[in-house]
Amino acid sequence: MSVSRRGFIKLLGAGTACLGLSQLGLDLKPAQAYAARLKTEGCKEIISICPFCSCCCNTLVSVRDGKIINIEGDPDYPISGGGLCAKGAALRSLHVSEKRLTKPLYRAPGSSKWVEKDWDWMLEKIARKVKDQRDRDFMLKNEAGLEVNRLESVFSLGTSQMSNEECAVTHQAIRSLGIVHIDHQARI
Amino acid sequence: MTQSYTDIANADAVLIMGSNCAEHHPIAFRWVLKAKEAGGVVIHVDPKFSRTSARSDFHVPLRSGTDIAFLGGMCKYILDKKLFFADYVLNYTNASFLVGEKYSFKDGLFSGFDASKKKYDQSQWAFEKDEKGMVKRDKTLANPRCVINVLKNHYERYTLDLVSQVTGVSKDNLLKVYDAFAATGKPDKAGTMLYALGWTQHTVGVQNIRLAGIIQLLLGNFGVAGGGINALRGEPNVQGSTDHALLYGYIPGYHNTSIATWKTLEDYQKANTPKTVDPLSVNWWQNRPKYIVSLLKGWFGDYATKDNDFGYNLLPKLDPGQDCSHLFIFDRMYQGKIKGGFLFGHNPCQSFPNTNKVRKAWDKLDWLVVGEVFHNESTDNFKRPGADPKKCKTEIFLLPSAYRAEKEGTISNSGRWHMWHYKAIDPIGQCRSMGDMVVQIMGRVRALYAKEGGALPDQVLKHELPATFNADEMCKKINGMFTRDTKIGDKEYKKGQLVPAFPLLQTDGSTTSLNWVYCGGYTEAEGNLAKRRDLAQTPMQAKIHLYPKFAWAWPVNRRILYNRAGVDLVGNPYNPDKAVIAWQDGKWVGDVPDGPAKPMAQGGPYPFIMQTEGHGQLYGPGRVDGPLPEHYEPAETPLTVNPFSAQMSNPCMKQVHASEYDVLCKNGDPRFPIVLTTYCMTEHWCSGSETRNGPALLEAEPQQYVEMSPQLAEEKGVKNGDVVVVESLRGRVEAVAMVTVRIKPFTVMGKTVHLVGMPFAFGWTKPKCGDAVNRLTTSVGDPNTTIPEYKACLVNLKKATKVTEL
Fold first, then answer.
1. How far, in Å, CA of A107 to CA of B646, rounded?
2. Interface predicted TM-score (ipTM) over 0.85
3. Domains of chain A, CATH where assigned
4. Which of B201, B206, B235, B374 is the best mutation test for A, with the most CBs of A within 10 A?
5. What pLDDT score does B235 carry?
6. Backbone angles phi, psi at B153, to 5 degrees
7. What mean pLDDT do residues B131-141 have?
């Protein structure tokens, strides 16, 4: 059996507990009281990955009652050994930031304001925009008369923040509209 | 990366050039320090002294944009002093190949240049072939047209004196680096090169990396532990997003986008499948047709049949040579030719060069769909300082995106490790994943086409797109499945079963795979290998920090690419103490070898399996701007003459001209005598659009600054902490002066040249922190990739009389 470093620490902990420190005459009450105050008490740990550089440091996300209580480096990730840089260490603050976008927002032409809209309204409007633009500008042939089946007036930019699965479905979706102006962070 | 991050520890020499690893990839730097602790030498070549320099054995400052001069000098040094690994060079590289008689190089230009088109006829650089089509070789290396002699001849001009004068690096410093790194040319020594955007973001970016590759081939540093060439890629899944080709010129798996002249699938396959007559060359890309058909079958499902070219005609096709990258997207947007679009997790109004142009182009859109986590300079461009929202007609749909811990899926690190991340909580508020956004938008668009018809509805409707986004299902589709019961050899596979590995993909439509490089990462027997967490190693693997059971790496879990070049002809590792693979008792042990075939001495193939002729390319006729790297000055240069040739800048460099901002200084422009280079920071992520929302991060790095030498500060009458205005021909930026000895003036061609450095993380959406440095940079690009030249342009600076941005 191969034991991960974190698993090993847990085993070690269990072994130590079995010794029964209290039998040695130590008063464990203050330590127990401290332990009860640990902020990750009762949390579930989930493995995620830092969304910044391509080291892709694995993280342990502590969750209680559907809320992120803590995010720290995963000591089992061979590359990081549990370390995180300043950005990774600030990950929780970004997840729980009040500045997060949490509702679909619409900006009308000429307006200086964002207006909240529901998803259905947004998706319906977007689909109509996309279809109208594609139908208006679609090129079946180029100037030389060769078949090209492309749409030049619409672009797609981003993103390396997507998972591989999101990238794959996005690429397919873009091509299915005939879009050719496609780019993202790999080029900049 | 040819290696993985953990492999850096195996290096005897680490050359960090075009990267500030300690600050921008801090965790990766652990492995650099491990190499150092084990006795390796760490060298940092970079315009400014940074925390990377502080932990290196020595720092060598270099004028931004002169890497080819620097490395060309190293190439000459290695060849002159015969420090190369002779057996490796002879057996594994194309050193002995004969370059055809049409090749020439004269005063900065290779043969075949058409000045009116700024293009070469690359056929003039071809190798000489015999009547059977075999590349002619001279294994004695006596023929002057042998690649090794052409190479030597090319870099003859790169003398220590000239390289020193052009780069601003002292001869002592040049020799220090050349000696330390060339020492890895011995069989049992390895040197690694770590680079980042400091190499790519130049008008000669691709050739910077080509030259690094040439040096690594000369020194026998590919395929060995602690060797290779390693891009410290910037973005979190930029490896994966490149593999899946969120890029105009490719479809997933590194295949060209089709062009109008490839009318049929057969045309496409013919044009894109390299051929060799050499039986010892694996020429892996000969398998491309299998990957293309499996991709089309994955996209179009039952609709795709042999009779309809598997749906090939429904793919959009480019015109030959059509460039649809960022630079041209914004140029066409500025001209009003692009009307709308999708923007996911990207902030071009802050991060793209010549930002004043980009922001004005953005104003001209009719509609825009954005998936984002926070507001940024691109979402809110209509209300940027100085803009009148009333004049901006763009209708914007801003969709709130789930953040990393709120979704599951895989991402791929720089070392190609394919890793699963789990969902910790549901997306907050009404946030949705970008995968959800894409399939939901497409669901609606497809419903409209099904109901109303329109322009070529089949293109939209024949694709098999999921109705809901499920990462696990997509992961299986990426790997690929059998479309019917199939027998391959004596093995039977059932319809719907996962394809075990890409050698089993077929051209007859019996398999699907949305990306062949990932095929084999999700198996019937072990499930999704991206979820593996096993740290088990054999003693041989433990010695080189190889973790073959942690996650999975493409291709086929190979952790070190071209590892057959790390052993001699009979299969013994060049460095037995740090063996990657070894031929023992009739089989390979260690890493997954580059194919199971026997070693070369027993009739096995050449090691560089992805190259058509199987050899590492010292001379590489595939790049559009030359088969060998040549020093050209950046598009904006403080020099008036390029001492290497009459050709000042890259003759094939990409340029756009639509706006008043598309302007370049004349060479040695006295109005803008200072070189500017840009960089990111430890505390802020790239354009800063996420991290400026982290209170601790913004407190640690709150404001735009410009680093300058005390000498320049004195010349300009600027004190540390003063606000200065930095100006280029394209824009102005306010910044706090950071007067520091970290930056030193350069002596270039006998004259003092000052360089300043500025981070690009600060934008106007956070009040008083400054605004985009990219308002200064140029819209010119490398001719192979169109990556813009962020890292070198010309500016001037003066003390600010009035401060508005800070």
1. 53
2. yes
3. 40-100 (3.30.200.210), 105-187 (no CATH)
4. B235
5. 84
6. -65, -40
7. 98
